[in-house]
Structure formats: structure tokens, C-alpha cells
Design a protein that fits this description.
The structure holds two protein chains of two kinds. Chain A has nine helices and nine strands. Chain A is of the alpha/beta class. The longest helix of chain A has 16 residues, at about 115-130. Chain B is an alpha/beta fold. The relative contact order of chain B is 0.08. Classes of the chains: A alpha/beta, B alpha/beta.
């Protein structure tokens, strides 16, 4: 993200925004809004002054400043010095700045950091709403559950390499639906299940895909095979991520 | 860019810290006022000459300016280091991703703010200093400056405006350092070192190295742009620009992304090198002297060969010793102050040695140079004993006595002339003046600044007539004025001497230490003189004193009463004893001042120049006329003015340097200074040049600068340094 914004120089390659290097955009905030670091503010300014300073540099008027402060829920504290803000309020302030230029694309780095549950929910809904307005919203996060609930598309990066670039649903799909079955006669049950269209993989018990747990129970009952365990397993995005990045993690706890 | 600049203005305005910083810069005004207060208090506790020993506060910026520079530099630095410190930089660079634009957008903001703040501070410091100093500011100090500088003086207003206008450059230096260093603390430490600590450290270095290094520091540059300092205005301007360009180049390089740094690095280095180069090129324009100077005591000594006869430049030469009290290096070297010694025949080398203390301050701006002139009695070409003796002068009452005087004068002259007739024929003051110009030329100086003392005025006048374009300034101190007609000159001098005699007699009437206390001194004196003319008073070895002899012998005592009026006391004693028929009071005094002569000798050493300069009488008739004039207008001192001209009666050499008018329209204004008895002649000459000024010393004596009168030295130094002429009739008084 810092490379996209021209804050870092990539060792190789380039990042383009709307087809051009970000640094060459005349009023970049009108194209891309970003919140990378909520702490990138001077505590001595009021919230309104901070936003106004950024707005002025991109030729954005004061009416818009009040608008984004309102959208970020900061109207009541707009005249307060930022130094007195909580992390959550700073996060909202950063979002207000990102929204300033009414850009087609937005980037958020860990936007829910430090937010209370209400704030987290607000951000999630805001991002969904922004996307619903037809904007591209790029969010980075380590909170997979959040992404699972928010993102339409995930890009997984590990050690600077692209690991996955796919729809969130498709990723989850790939690792979903699997039922763990332990039975008195696994071989017989496997045959029954395969006959009914299931895919069976033997591990510690049978890992079954293609059949619902309910159907597996019924089939076992019908064939008189005693079941010890019948557990539907759903792979979370997090597990999918862990699996994908298994050999890409830089810091591993052992 | 305009949006970025507007945003920077808004960013500046919306931080209250900037306002506090600007308010704190006003402490600089307080600092200046505080120092002025301390100086004013010290000033009030001093008296007389000590008042002149203070160092000038000038425009009063001295102490406050480094602080003002620090605050303004910090303003520039903080405008970027707080961005790095708070992390705001990434917000800024996201909004304005063109990094150079982001950096340079701060420039107009800092320039505008610090320009206004700079002028406010500079004029605030000036006004505060002058308000505290009050009328003390007008005191002219030994260094040639006033204690405080008035806005009406040339260069002061310009200096303040330039210093104020230099503030933006200091702010940009701060911005550059801040961007390169990024840390607020680190930048402030660097600025403090650069603006506050280095100047103090430079002062602790051995002189003149400390002065020279100090001149290259940021804080010393604005003043040197306004007026010549150790650096020329162009060099100082280029150097200040170089500091700014180097700091900004470092900033542009530091803020650029990796891979985009080479071009600004090369461009910034090139620009800095060009500017520093401009500094050294224009600083290297010092004159090249072909004279070799060697240490001799506390001076430097050298010598110069000059033709004996300037009409034959390829002819025989003589070598004249030179001495220099060298420039201290504390300030910009203006050039050479050449001291033309009196006499005639006096040694300028000895003058510099004896009176070095009088030149202590002017050496900050000049090399002070003098010589043992061609007519110097110590030169050794002509016999010194012969030169310091001569015939006793008698006033001729008829043509026969006139012819007898001529014979005795000629005999004395021939005796000295024999050793070197060619030199003896060229001891006039015009030849002396040409010798001086040879020194000027050998030293590679376009012009000399002159100080002429006593008879030194005659070669001074000759120089001004022969080489007017070579005269930067001419200070005349109690000089002999040959441009005045003899009648007019005698009339003026008799009047002044009579006034001085009146002071002597009034002192005597009121001081019981006077041997004639309680008596009418004027009557007693004249009765003695007239009685001695009828029947001369014996001294020793059969020598007798006429009234003329008594008058001539008494004259130096009358003019210069000396410490505690010692010489007036001595004179009163001598008169008292002569009344009783014993003239040894006079002869003892004359003996002590000559090589044991029992009467005032008309020394050949003086006459050999006097007569060639045309101070003698045209003929017997002129003598009679001027003698009659003295008898008419000088009741107590008649005859005194006859003494020197009578020494030229019968002189074997023709006049070579006759008095001739000065090319006044081609000369700079002169300054003349003189005591009660010297002022009129000196002022008469100085004021022949338009725009000249004079210093009238209300007191006795002969010579003011060499003998160390602080008031005269202060005004003269002011003239030497800035060509600032004191108003006509500026008055000095003895300050002890």
C-alpha cells in the first residue's frame, strides 16, 4: 500500500493508480483515498483544521470538509485538538480524510484497529456501503473473520509474494463442506457413502465431502453401521489463510 | 503547486506552536535592550576619556540577532521536523505526493512569515537599543563609531533592512537542515551550534584567525552584505546564498525517494560550489605589495629606494626606512593610513613606535604606515650633529645686518650640505610627497588615507596637489599652512599666540604657584623684553639674550603648559630670574631641548626643508613689512613669527616647492584638527576643500592624535573609516 501511494520505492516493478503512478496525479485524493496510519496527524491541530489542511492541498472546499467529518461521526468534536482523541476517533478522522476527494477507490490498512465493537461494525458497514456505491475498496487486515464478513475478493500475500487472488466465497468454498465420520465399520460405510455420491478420504476417521451430515447419518442407520462421531466441519477463511500461507510465514511460533 | 502552498499556509496558521514561537522571538528585542541597558549603566559610571573606550553597540542587533536567527531557523526546521516527528509526513505526502513540491511549498510560507518577523525583530531590537541608550548613542568612540547608530547615518537603515531581509534565508537553512536531519532535537542542536555556539567558539581562537572565521558564519553575513566587512558585500551575499542552497539541496536529496537522489545531489552541489567559488574570488582582491616587511619590536619594518632627484628617476637612489603598525584583522582592512611626520625632519618611524597606543583602534581597519623621510635628521646621509645645530637668528635692523644674517645662515647650510649636495638640493616637501607615492605604489594601494601632523602638513599639501586622485582622506593635525599668505598667516597666528599669552598671564594672576603671582604679567614680560633688547640679559659663557631671543625661547612653553602647568611655572621662574639679570632660566631650557645650544638655534635640519618649501622672505622689504605688522598687532609676542623665515635668508638652494593652490574639486573632503594655537591655520587649509570639516580643541598644546586626545581620535577615526566628516567647528575638550 505504501508503494502504491509512493511512500516507498518498490525494489522492482511499479504500482499504478488509474493507470498512472500515484505521484504523478495532480489531485490524487480525488482518485484514491487512503488510510494507512491513523496516527499520521499533528496533535496540535483541531480535527477540522487537520482535514481542512489536507483538503486545501487538493483544492477541496470547506463544505466537503464538514461533510466528511459528519460522515465519520466527528462533527461534535471537530473543534477539538487531535491530541485528545482516542485511537478510535483518530481512525474515524483518517477515514474522513480518505473520503475527502470522493474518490473512486479507497485503501484502508487495518481499519478496525483499536475500535470498539460499535466502531468495528460502523467501519464494516461503511466499507460495504462504499463498495455498494460502486467504489473499489482495498482493505488489508490480519483479522480473517472481519474480511470474511466484509470482502468480496481476497488477495493473500505472504513474504511479499502473491499466494491467492480469488473471490472470498470461492476461497471459503474450496475449504468448506467436509464431515468427519467415525464408525464401527469405516470400510463398509465408505462404500455406502461413495455409492451415494460422496467423496471419502480416510484420515483419522473418514473425511466426507459431497454429502450432508444428515444424509450420512441416515445412510449409516439404513445400513446398520454404528456411528461414533458425526461432525460437520467448516473451514474458516482464517484456516484457509493459514493453509495457504503455511510455508510463507515469516515468524512462526513453535 | 498553488494548492500545496495554500495548504502550507493553512498548516502554518493552524498550529498554535508557531505563534508561540514567533512571540518568543521577541525575547531577542529584550536581549538587545538588556545589553543596551547594561552598557548604558556602565557608561553612566564612566567619565571623560573612558567614555570613548566603549565598544559601539552599532545598530544594537549584536546580542539579539543570534537569538532571533535561532528562533527563525527553528521556525523553518519545525515546519518539517514536526511532520516527521508526529508521522504527519505520510499524510502530507499522500496528499501531495510530488515530494519536491511538498518541500518547496513550505518556502513561500517561511519566506513571507520570516520576512515580516525579521523586519519587526530587527527594527524592534534597533529601536529598543536606541531608546535605552538615549542621547548616549551620539557619543563618538575611539573606534570611530558612535555608541549607537542613528538611522540618518549612511548605511544604517540599509543594514537593518538587509538584516531583516536575511531572516528568510535563515528560515530556509532551518528548513533544509530539518528535512535532512528529520529529528526536531537533532536539528535544534545543529542550529544552536551553527548560530550560537560557533560564533562564540570563533572568538576564542587566536587573533586574527578568530575574526576571520567569525566573518564566515551565518550571523555575521548580513552586516557584511550591507557594508564592507572582512568579506565584501558580494562575497557575503554569495556565502549566505551558498548556506541556503546547500541546506535546501540536502533537503531535496533527503526527501527524494531512493533512486531519485542523484540529480538533486549533483545540481545542489554544483550550485553550492559556484556560490562558494564566488565568495573566494571576490575575497582574493587584496593589494599585492612588493615591500618585504620584517618584525622589528612591536612593529613591522621595511625600506624603500627612491631617487634622490625625482626629476631623474633613473639617477642615484637613497633608501628610506619604513615602519608599519599592521592591521589587527578584527575588521575589514580598508587600506593604509599613512602618517606624515612633522618637523621638518621628524621620524615617522619613531612616531608610530612612541604613539602606538593612539593607533590601537584604527589598526582594526588599517595598516598604519610611516617613514623616516629623506629630510629625517636621523637618516645618516647628512651629518646629524650638523643638522640639529644652526646659527642663532638676530632680527636685522638694516640691510647690513640682513647681509650678515645671510652669511651666517649660508655658512651653516654649506657645512651640512657638503656631505651630499645632490640630496641637500632635494629636501623639499614635494620630493617627500613623491617618496610617499612611491611607497603607495610599492604597496599596491590605489589610494592612501593620510594623517599629516605639524610640518607634515606641507608634504601633505604637496601630495594632494601632485596626486589628488590618490588621496582617499586627509586628516590634518595642527599643521603648518603654507597656502596662507604671509601677512594673513602672521596676523592670524599673532592673534592666537596673544590669546594664549593672555591665558598664561591669567593663570599666573590666579595661581600662587606662579613666580609672578600677584603682578601684572603682561607688563612685567614686556618690560623684560624691551630692556633685554636695549641691554641683553646674560646667560652663561658670555651668551646674552635679547628680547627676541627671550620671546622665541619662551614660545614652546607658552603654547604647551604641560602637566599641572609645569612649563608655565618654569617660564614664570625664567622671567623672574631674567628680570634679575640671569637668563639661564631660558638657556637651560633651550640647552635641554637641543644639543646644548645656549640660544634657540635655527637648525639646518629644519631650514633645509623650510627654505626649499619657500617659507623664507622674498626680500628685505617683505621682512620689514611683516616685522612691522607683528610690532603693531602683537604687543607681547612681536617678532616671534620672524624666526623661521629669517633662517632662510641667504639660503644656498632655490625654492623647489613653492606654495600653490590645491585642486580642490578633485580632492575628497579634508578634516582639520587643532588646539587654540593651531586651529586657525589647520582649519583654513582644510576648508579650502569643499565639504571639509574641522575639530576645534579647546585647550593648549600642539598635536592631538599622536598625543592621544580621545575625542579627536574618535572623530578622526570616524573620518578614516567611513569618510564621515565631523560638522564644521566640532569641539573637543580635554577628557582625563
Amino acid at each position: 500500500m505504501r508503494a502504491i501511494l509512493g511512500l516507498e520505492a518498490p525494489q522492482a516493478g511499479s504500482a499504478l493508480v488509474a493507470g498512472r503512478p500515484y505521484a504523478s496525479l495532480k489531485r490524487p485524493l480525488l482518485t484514491l483515498g487512503a488510510l494507512l496510519d491513523a496516527g499520521a496527524v499533528h496533535g496540535g491541530r483541531t480535527a477540522r483544521a487537520h482535514v481542512a489542511c489536507v483538503a486545501r492541498s487538493n483544492g477541496i472546499g470547506l463544505a466537503r470538509v464538514d461533510e466528511v467529518l459528519d460522515r465519520a461521526g466527528l462533527t461534535s468534536v471537530a473543534g477539538k485538538r487531535i491530541a485528545k482523541f482516542s485511537l478510535g476517533m483518530k481512525q474515524r478522522l483518517g477515514i474522513a480524510v480518505a473520503l475527502l476527494g470522493d474518490p473512486e477507490a479507497l485503501m484502508f490498512d487495518e481499519p478496525v484497529n483499536g475500535l470498539d465493537p460499535e466502531g468495528v461494525r460502523w467501519i464494516r458497514e461503511l466499507m460495504r456501503a462504499l463498495a455498494a456505491e460502486g467504489r473499489a475498496v482495498l482493505v488489508s487486515s490480519h483479522l480473517m473473520a472481519e474480511m470474511a464478513m466484509t470482502a468480496d475478493h481476497v488477495v493473500v500475500v505472504g513474504r511479499g509474494r502473491l499466494i491467492a487472488d480469488t473471490a472470498t466465497a470461492a476461497l471459503a468454498e474450496r475449504y468448506r463442506r467436509d464431515v468427519l465420520v467415525r464408525a464401527a465399520d469405516p470400510a463398509a460405510l465408505a462404500m455406502v457413502l461413495r455409492a451415494d455420491g460422496g467423496v471419502v478420504r480416510a484420515e483419522d476417521g473418514l473425511a466426507v465431502t459431497g454429502l450432508e451430515a444428515r444424509r450420512i447419518g441416515e445412510l449409516a442407520f439404513a445400513h446398520g453401521i454404528a456411528l461414533y462421531e458425526l461432525t460437520p466441519r467448516e473451514a474458516s477463511l482464517e484456516e484457509a489463510f493459514m493453509e495457504l500461507t503455511d510455508d510463507s510465514r515469516e515468524y512462526v511460533t513453535r | 503547486m498553488m494548492d500545496a502552498i495554500a495548504a502550507e499556509f493553512l498548516k502554518f496558521r493552524t498550529l498554535r506552536a508557531n505563534l508561540y514561537l514567533l512571540i518568543s522571538s521577541l525575547a531577542a528585542v529584550g536581549l538587545s535592550a538588556g545589553v543596551a541597558f547594561l552598557v548604558a549603566r556602565g557608561f553612566d559610571n564612566q567619565q571623560g576619556a573612558d567614555l570613548r573606550r566603549f565598544d559601539s553597540l552599532g545598530d544594537g542587533l549584536g546580542t539579539g540577532l543570534p537569538f532571533a536567527h535561532l528562533v527563525i531557523g527553528a521556525l523553518g526546521a519545525l515546519s518539517v521536523t514536526t511532520e516527521y516527528g508526529t508521522g504527519h509526513i505520510s499524510t502530507s505526502l499522500t496528499a501531495v505526493p510530488a515530494r519536491r513540491t511538498f518541500l518547496l511549498a513550505k518556502v513561500p510560507v517561511l519566506v513571507a512569515v520570516s520576512l515580516v518577523a525579521g523586519q519587526v525583530l530587527v527594527f524592534g531590537m534597533y529601536a529598543a537599543t536606541m531608546a535605552v541608550l538615549g542621547t548616549r548613542a551620539d557619543t563618538v568612540l575611539l573606534g570611530g563609531e558612535t555608541l549607537g547608530a542613528s538611522l540618518s547615518e549612511p548605511g544604517v537603515l540599509a543594514g537593518l533592512l538587509i538584516t531583516g531581509a536575511s531572516m528568510p534565508l535563515v528560515a530556509l537553512i532551518g528548513l533544509g537542515l530539518g528535512t535532512a536531519i528529520r529529528s526536531t532535537a537533532g536539528t535544534l542542536v545543529t542550529l544552536t551550534a551553527l548560530l550560537l555556539i560557533l560564533p562564540v567558539a570563533a572568538q576564542t581562537l587566536p587573533r586574527p584567525l578568530g575574526y576571520q572565521i567569525g566573518a564566515y558564519l551565518v550571523g555575521a553575513l548580513p552586516a557584511q552584505i550591507a557594508a564592507d566587512g572582512l568579506l565584501s558585500p558580494i562575497a557575503a551575499g554569495a556565502l549566505l546564498a551558498a548556506y541556503t542552497v546547500a541546506a535546501l539541496a540536502a533537503a531535496v536529496v533527503a526527501i527524494a525517494l531512493r533512486g531519485h537522489r542523484i540529480r538533486p545531489l549533483l545540481a545542489g552541489s554544483a550550485a553550492t560550489i559556484v556560490l562558494v567559488g564566488a565568495t573566494s574570488v571576490s575575497a582574493a582582491a587584496s593589494p599585492t605589495s612588493t615591500l618585504a616587511w620584517k618584525p622589528c619590536g612591536k612593529m613591522l619594518c621595511s625600506e624603500i629606494r627612491v631617487p634622490v632627484n625625482w626629476a631623474e628617476p633613473q639617477g642615484r637612489t637613497i633608501t628610506l626606512p619604513l615602519a608599519m603598525l599592521p592591521h589587527t584583522g578584527r575588521r575589514h582592512r580598508i587600506g593604509v593610513l599613512f602618517s606624515i611626520p612633522g618637523g621638518p625632519g621628524g621620524s615617522g618611524v619613531q612616531d608610530l613606535e612612541r604613539h602606538a597606543g593612539s593607533f590601537a583602534q584604527i589598526r582594526d581597519s588599517f595598516d598604519v604606515v610611516s617613514l623616516l623621510p629623506r629630510n629625517g635628521v636621523e637618516l645618516g646621509v647628512l651629518d646629524q650633529d650638523c643638522l640639529t645645530t644652526g646659527p642663532w637668528i638676530t632680527t636685522a635692523d638694516n640691510e647690513r645686518e640682513w647681509a650678515a644674517l645671510a652669511r651666517s645662515n649660508r655658512a651653516a647650510a654649506e657645512r651640512c650640505r657638503a656631505a651630499d649636495p645632490e640630496l641637500f638640493a632635494h629636501l623639499d616637501s614635494a620630493s617627500f610627497a613623491r617618496d610617499i607615492d612611491a611607497i603607495r605604489s610599492a604597496m599596491g594601494e590605489r589610494q592612501f588615507t593620510f594623517m599629516a601632523t605639524s610640518y607634515g602638513g606641507v608634504p601633505g599639501i604637496a601630495y594632494a596637489r601632485l596626486f589628488p586622485s590618490r588621496v582617499r582622506a586627509m586628516y590634518l593635525d595642527g599643521i603648518v599652512n603654507t597656502l596662507r599668505g604671509k601677512s594673513e598667516g602672521d596676523r592670524a597666528r599673532y592673534t592666537l599666540m596673544e590669546a594664549q599669552f593672555t591665558r598664561f598671564s591669567q593663570w599666573c594672576a590666579h595661581d600662587s604657584a606662579c613666580a609672578l603671582y600677584g603682578r601684572d604679567v603682561g607688563t612685567a614680560w614686556n618690560e623684560l623684553r624691551f630692556a633685554a633688547d636695549r641691554s641683553p640679559v646674560p646667560a652663561e659663557k658670555g651668551v646674552v639674550y635679547s628680547g627676541f631671543d627671550i620671546t622665541v625661547a619662551a614660545m614652546p612653553d607658552i603654547v604647551t603648559p604641560g602637566e599641572d602647568n609645569a612649563r608655565w611655572k618654569e617660564l614664570a621662574q625664567a622671567i623672574r630670574r631674567a628680570e634679575k639679570g640671569d637668563a639661564t632660566g631660558f638657556s637651560d631650557y633651550v640647552k635641554a631641548g637641543t644639543l646644548g645650544s645656549l640660544k634657540p638655534p635655527s637648525t639646518v635640519g629644519m631650514n633645509m626643508t623650510h627654505c626649499l618649501d619657500g617659507i623664507g622672505y622674498r626680500d628685505y622689504a617683505e621682512y620689514r613689512r611683516l616685522r612691522a605688522l607683528g610690532d603693531r598687532i602683537a604687543p607681547h609676542l612681536s617678532g616671534n613669527e620672524l624666526w623661521h623665515p629669517l633662517g632662510c635668508v641667504g639660503w644656498p638652494e632655490p625654492v623647489r616647492n613653492p606654495a600653490a593652490p590645491l585642486p580642490a574639486d578633485r580632492l575628497p573632503p579634508f578634516v582639520g584638527a587643532g588646539t587654540w594655537t593651531d586651529y586657525a591655520d589647520t582649519a583654513d587649509l582644510a576648508l579650502r576643500v569643499p565639504g571639509s570639516g574641522t575639530i576645534r580643541f579647546e585647550g593648549s598644546g600642539h598635536g592631538l592624535y599622536h598625543t592621544g586626545d580621545p575625542c579627536t581620535i574618535a572623530h578622526a577615526n570616524r573620518y578614516f573609516i567611513d569618510s564621515r566628516v565631523p560638522p564644521r567647528n566640532t569641539v573637543c575638550r580635554a577628557e582625563s
